[in-house]
Design goal:
By secondary structure, the chain is mainly α. It has one domain. Helix 2 runs parallel beside helix 9, helix 3 packs antiparallel against helix 4 and helix 4 crosses helix 8.
């Protein structure tokens, strides 16, 4: 698959990376989740939540390359099930954060929990899947090689840049948490509201 780098036009790849970075840097659901995780558990939890989101993106890229995403997109019931499942999970996280009291710095979610939550939250969100279906094909062409391989390549690049950016947001939020460790109850409530807002956004949008 690396041979695509030789046949893929550099200007098109550069345009794709630039467009992807603009989208990555724009705060969205992934960034909000990593930020809430960083506030809740510190820089390490925020970074691993961002990494988990990246793992969820790999799942969506794989579905898009295999053509599964297109089939799911044509089945409203499947999208609704994913949306409600993801919303329920986010609401569960919101309740846990809201009920937490004065957790000392560094005692939030463990690294594994943050990683798992990030992956599950992204995997249960149908929006990245639909976005990739609309975004990636714009930069592919049969002349460059098998389209599914191009989708894997471009999706991998987009997922990598998105993961790094999201981890950065999570780490930054974690440092704010350390600076305000004495006000952890307030920060936990903020994280809960962010998780709840994500759940509402997933259901309503």
């Amino acid at each position: 698959m690396l041979h695509l780098l030789e046949t893929f036009p550099p200007d098109r790849l550069a345009a794709f990376v630039a467009a992807g970075l603009v989208l990555n840097l724009t705060p969205g659901a992934d960034v909000m989740f990593a930020t809430a995780s960083g506030i809740r558990g510190g820089p390490r939890a925020g970074a691993l939540a961002g990494l988990g989101v990246g793992l969820g993106a790999i799942w969506h890229v794989s579905l898009a390359a295999a053509g599964v995403s297109a089939m799911l997109a044509a089945w409203p019931g499947a999208l609704a099930a994913l949306r409600w499942g993801g919303a329920a999970y986010l609401l569960w996280l919101a309740v846990n954060s809201w009920q937490a009291r004065g957790v000392a710095a560094g005692q939030g979610a463990t690294g594994w929990q943050a990683l798992r939550r990030g992956a599950l939250t992204n995997a249960f969100n149908p929006k990245p899947m639909l976005f990739l279906l609309a975004f990636l094909p714009q930069f592919t062409a049969p002349a460059f090689g098998p389209v599914w391989q191009q989708i894997v390549l471009l999706g991998g690049v987009f997922g990598l840049t998105g993961t790094l950016v999201t981890m950065g947001y999570g780490i930054a939020a974690g440092h704010v948490r350390h600076a305000l460790a004495r006000r952890m109850t307030v920060l936990n409530r903020i994280a809960a509201l962010m998780f709840g807002g994500l759940a509402l956004r997933l259901i309503v949008d």
